[in-house]
Design a protein that fits this description.
This protein is mainly alpha-helical and 114 residues long. Helices cover 61% and strands 11% of the residues. It has helices at 4-23, 38-49, 71-101, 105-110; strands at residues 27-29, 32-34, 58-60, 66-68.
Length: 114
Amino acid sequence: AEILPGKKANKIESLIASATEANYADITQDSIVWKADEATRGLLAEVLSVGSVPVTMYWRDTDGVSHDRTYVQLQAIGYAILERGLTIDTSLTSKVAEVNAATTTAAIEAITWE
């Protein structure tokens, strides 16, 4: 019983790392794969905070190819990132609760991110 707290802490740490990796992974929106890393999110938030974009606005995909994007299309990328993040956070919260409720090593090890 005294090893369970350590196993639980390690499992939770592992789940958080997996959730973070999934949250910052590239994302597909409008059939195009976009970066969703921290720097790109910051830039997207900065661009969207202005409230509009020039007619010549573009956004680069993960291969660096520029795609013409309207403000609404950029909002859609941001929304896809937000929606995925919410799903990931909800899943993480559920899995952490499962870990905390586990009473055996086998039960802890059975909880995975996937």
